[in-house]
Amino acid sequence: MSLRTQLRASWGLIALNGIIPVKRMPLYLVNTLAAPFSFLFFIYVLSGGKEIGFGVAGGLVLTTFSIGTSLQADMTHFRVDLKLQDMVVASPMRASTYVFGMALSELAFAMPGILAFVVVGYATRSPGVFALPIIVATLLLVWALGSSLGFFLATYLRDIRETFAIAPLLSLVLSVLPPVYYPISSIAPYEWLGYLAPTADASQLIQGALGITELSALDWVRAAGVLIGFTAAFMLLAMFKAQWRER
User: Fold this and answer.
1) Per-residue pLDDT, 92
2) Averaged pLDDT for residues 214-242
3) I want to staple 194 with a disulfide (CB 3.0 to 4.6 A). Which of 26, 40, 179, 208 is the partner?
4) How far apart are alpha carbons 107 and 60 in whole angstroms?
5) What is the pTM of this model?
6) CA distance 30 to 37
């Protein structure tokens, strides 16, 4: 397939899984934003608005990472129920085109929520000139990490109902319990536990970009290095260990 054909195929997947469902049922957007904005609301109420920045940083990470859990469910549905993956395998479409198009469709689906959190962040904070590039780069890494994990799991699941058990567990372990919605200093002297979750490092980078927390040069390098390392590891896992063809 030519590059132009690959791009058209990716756009078709974006429309199929990211745009058309929202047009048919806008409540999908409400469902996507429910959990992140619920955390933001409670943080705002309990702190009297003083710690809303942590809610913004956590909301951005949770919304973007949830793309991976959504991808897991959608690709399992397409593979098991609709047999779409079998058709893709038998077609000239590359596996990378299929995965990239599906991941982009989830990103398009979550984009309104991401933009809403960015607006709230800029409305309540005074970030520097480099804040937005840092936030965008961090969220792209989180998107790649979550999508790789979601694709890997989707190729092994046998029923869409299995995703109902795994998705909440992933969200709990990587987006709720770690210091994503709260400062990592809150769990001293067990901060090393927080560093085990790449989503915590992503949140710390966004907190630093928004000026919520003061990060040293070492903190910036460590958090970025951990996030990049985990993202690369999950991408390699998806590339070499995902079960693309049925055995």
Assistant:
1) 81
2) 94
3) 179
4) 12
5) 0.90
6) 10
Tokens linked to 48: 């009297």
Residue for token pair 């928004």: 210
Q: Which two tokens stand for residue 115?
A: 């933009």
Q: How far apart are the first and last CA of the chain?
A: 25
For every residue of the chain, DSSP letters joined together read --HHHHHHHHHHHHIIIIIHHHHH-THHHHHHHHHHHHHHHHHHHHHTTTTHHHHHHHHHHHHHHHHHHHHHHHHHIIIIIS-HHHHHHHSS--HHHHHHHHHHHHHHHHHHHHHHHHHHHHHH----TTHHHHHHHHHHHHHHHHHHHHHHHHTT-SSHHHHHHHHHHHHIIIIISSTTSS-GGGGTT-HHHHTTSHHHHHHHHHHHHHTSS---HHHHHHHHHHHHHHHHHHHHHHHHHS--S--
pLDDT digits (tens, 9 = 90+) for 167-211: 888 888 888 889 999 888 888 888 888 878 999 999 999 999 999
Instruction: Assess whether pLDDT exceeds 90 at residue 225.
Output: yes
**What are 148's two structure tokens?**
């790789």
Q: What is the pLDDT of residues 28-68, one digit of tens each?
A: 777 777 878 888 888 888 888 888 999 999 999 999 999 88
- Tokens for 61, please give them: 């990470």
C-alpha angle 161/163/168, rounded to 5°? Answer: 120
